[in-house]
Design a protein that fits this description.
Elements: E1 9-12, H1 18-31, H2 49-52, E2 59-65, E3 68-76, E4 85-93, H3 102-116, E5 121-126, H4 131-139, E6 143-144, E7 159-164
Parallel strand pairs: 4-5
Antiparallel strand pairs: 1-2, 2-3, 3-4, 5-7, 6-7
């Protein structure tokens, strides 16, 4: 079957996705040689993202092809963010899902969800190794910040960005 006939399904995360999502996320840190301390890699919630996102005004979108989880992206009301702010989180793609528009679709669904939930701004924490994602954020008018916002617990991140919705 050629790639033009492949259908990617986009849906909210389910409990059955937990293991595959945790594996994708942790494998990316290894692939990109990113230090893991103070990141999603060591965060215990990474093993049960479904439960984490069972919170009001939070959503985790998942891309699936023929039953195989390819990646995720969502928004989450991180503790101590300013009123009306939400964090764009868990934006990760398996290698075979990259450069196909899947990440862009997950990202756009997350931004639209944030708007639908009534948030006024989206905050992001990232790393230089995720240059493709950072370039996408810049394309969508995210601006660099000099310091982190909120209390994600991910002290290892060193890029912080913000977009007003």
């Amino acid at each position: 079957m050629n790639s033009s006939t492949v259908k990617i399904a986009y849906r909210q995360a389910q409990a059955v996705d937990n293991k595959a999502l945790a594996e994708i996320i942790r494998n990316i840190f290894i692939e990109m040689d990113i230090p893991t301390a103070g990141t999603v890699y060591t965060d215990p919630t990474t093993d049960d993202l479904y439960s984490l996102f069972q919170k009001s005004k939070a959503i985790l979108w998942v891309a699936v092809e023929y039953g195989k989880v390819l990646g995720c992206c969502g928004v989450y009301p991180t503790d101590a963010l300013p009123n009306g702010y939400v964090e764009l989180v868990k934006f990760y793609l398996a290698p075979e899902a990259r450069n196909k528009g899947i990440g862009k679709t997950l990202f756009e669904k997350s931004v639209e969800s944030a708007k639908g939930f009534g948030y006024t701004s989206i905050y992001i924490e990232s790393f230089p190794q995720f240059a493709n994602a950072v370039n996408l954020y810049k394309k969508y008018d995210f601006k660099y910040l000099e310091n982190p916002l909120g209390n994600s617990g991910h002290f290892g991140c060193n890029i912080w960005m913000l977009k007003t919705l």
